[in-house]
Amino acid sequence: MENNVLKFKTSINCGNCIKAVTPFLDQVNGIQSWEVDTNNPDKILSVTSEGATHDEVIAAVKQAGFDVDPV
């Protein structure tokens, strides 16, 4: 399966926020890697996916208590 890069606008804006969301994103099957550009005004979450869907990533980020919208 081909790797997909999914992008989201989030409210994840600092290192502590990244620590808070990590266990939720780590539980999503099919995520190869992810990172948040906290320097971007939209706090862009980029997820390299090998099967994870937009909906699964959105659910994980919301469960961690953050706002998230697909870009």
UniProtKB/TrEMBL annotation:
InterPro entries associated with the record: HMA_dom, HMA_dom_sf
Membrane-crossing residue ranges in chain numbering: none
Gene3D superfamilies the record matches: 3.30.70.100
Highest taxon above the source species: Bacteria
Span of domain HMA: 3-69
Protein name per the record: Heavy-metal-associated domain-containing protein
Organism: Sphingobacterium corticis
